[in-house]
Each structure stands twice: as C-alpha cells, then as structure tokens.
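Workshop exercise sheet. Pairs work together: one partner reads the sequence aloud, the other fills in the structure field after running the prediction. Swap roles for the next sheet.
Pair: D.N. / O.F.
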Amino acid sequence: MDTGNERLGRPVIASKSKSSEQIVRLRRLKMKNDLTESWLQELLDNSPDLLPVNMIDDRIDPPLFSLGREITNPSGAIDNLFLSRSGHVVLVETKLWRNPESRRQVVAQIIDYAGHVRKWDYAKLCSLWSSRHTTTSSLWASVAPEEDEQDWVDRVSRNLEGGRMALLIVGDGIKSQTQQLADSVSGHADFPFRLGLVELRLYDLENNKILVMPSIIARTQEIERAVVRIVYSDGKYPDVVVEVPDSPRDRRSLSRQSFLVEIGRSTSQECADVAERILELLESSDLQIEWKTSSLAVKALVASAPEVLFSLVVVKNNGQMYTYKPWLSDQVIRAWKSEEIADQLLARQEEFFLGIGGRKSSSGN
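Structure field:
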C-alpha cells in the first residue's frame, strides 16, 4: 500500500489583481447532520470526475459513467457504481468517519461487494444503465469508446471475469485504523483489484456553497508477477524460463507485418500468403482496416451514413475470422432507423460466410 505523504495546504480565495488584497481563508467543514452519506453519494453520482481513479489504478481511463447508487447485492448495497470508458468497473463505498463501526469493516466490506460484482456479466451492467437512463442509447453508445462495440463488450466482460476493477473508499477523513487495515490488503493472484482511500476535504464558501477537494490517502501498489516455466528434456537439468507479462499500457496494436508473422506461426505459411493477398485487396478497396492488439477489423464507410463505420468482420492473429450479427444490426439501425434494412444486410452477410465455409455459433450469431 502506497500512502500519500503529501498533504493539502489550507486553501484561500485571493484577488486576481493583487495577491495581498481580499484574501479569504476558507474554513474546513466537518460532515454534520445536514451533510449525510446520501449527500456524498449524490455528489459523486453527479460528479464522478471528483474521483482521482486513474491515479489509483493506471489501467483505468476516465471518464466514469454512473451505473447507480445503493445497488443491492447479497452482502448489502454498493453505495456508488461506475464504469470507465476503458471498460473497468469502479466500486465506491462512502463513509462518514464519525461512524465508529465503519472503521474496521469498510475495507472487508467493499472487497466482499466486489466479489459479487465479479460474477456479473455485461447484460447486468446494461440493465443497471437502462433502469436509470431514459435515453434509448445503449450503454456502449452512451460511453462512446474508441473501439467497436463487440470489442468493447468483450473487454468489459474480460475485466469483470478477471476481477480487474478499482475499489474506492471515500470519506470526509480517513482514520488511522482503516489506513492500517488497508495497508495489509494485498491483491490475490486471481483477483487483481486496486484499492484506494480518498479523503474529501470540504471548505465553506459563501451562498451555501462548498469547495470539495479530493486527496488520495493510500492506495495499493502493483506487484509485478512473472510466469516461471520449467521444461524437462533429455538434458540433466531442466530449462527454466521466466516470462514477465506486458503491462496493458505497453501493449501496442498489430502492424501489417506482425499480423502476417503471427498468422504464419499459428497456422501455416500458406495461410499467411493468402492473408497477405487479402490485405492487398482490402487496401486497394474502399474498405478500412483498423488494427487492434491481437486482431484487425474490416469496416465500411457508407456515404449516406458518414457518422457510422460499419464493422463487417474481425480477423484474429490466429487466423480465426468472425462477425457478430447483433453488433452490425445495431449499427445499421442507428444509421438508417430501419430494422428491415438491417435484416436484409445480415441475411446477405450470413449467406456469404456460409458460402465460404463459415458456421454459426451456438447462439446463432
């Protein structure tokens, strides 16, 4: 656990014209009866950018999108729940530290909640989103990530299943007992959550306004793990290979050449030659290629709907090619507001793939 040594100074309001004039020293507030945990939850719900989540978990890219407050689970209720544009769930437990019973329980409580959230799927997050947003836009369309819907849905699902999420305890003052308890928390090998303690300092302004200043008090540190492989052969001693996985931040998109090399390794050189010829045809067409970390996506730009890039097919670096019918159907309906057009396009796409030896998945997509 990395504890924040820096402490915020006392803020003042100064004159822009002359710093020595009209200096107002702000008075720090304590959470009183009129400032409740419900008030704090509502504040975070409306202003999730208050949370310095990317400084606690560098895997997460803001902004955060609220999925709701007081979300029930078998162990209790999650105070605030968010989803980041990078596809990570963020759980928040709000605490007023005048409540002594919370000091020993809060860390164990939020980890328990996270264990239940980890069992959810993407459909559960969509249900939470639609239950509190009257807009007809899907969760993906509202978050508007840079990647295709299916790629993003897959990423959210993998993060949920893998337990890659951030847990934040937010209050008006972090007590030493809680910080010491948090210091003892270490992520489990199969549950790589990040935990942070965030203190919100409140200062009294005029006209019943409050200045809110977030400060990171403590956070878990990532301990890099390696994979050790012991290979026995005819020699007297085994070969020991230590592999350190790349950080998600270090991963780069495939290039044309690296894609062809990986295709050849996974299949055969003959398949790599065919893939190279297909790439040449794609590059000379009006279709667009978008390179991912382990795949490429083929997209089409239609003049009548320039705001949408239709995702036609994904090709993975192991040679597997697939499409996802609900994903393309949603794009077509958003562009042309016609389910009939979407059905016609999907029927032709299915006919094409079946004609070249493709097959439907167990779900029919």
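Discussion prompt: Confidence is low (pLDDT under 50) at residues 2-6, 176-184, 246-251. What would you look at next?
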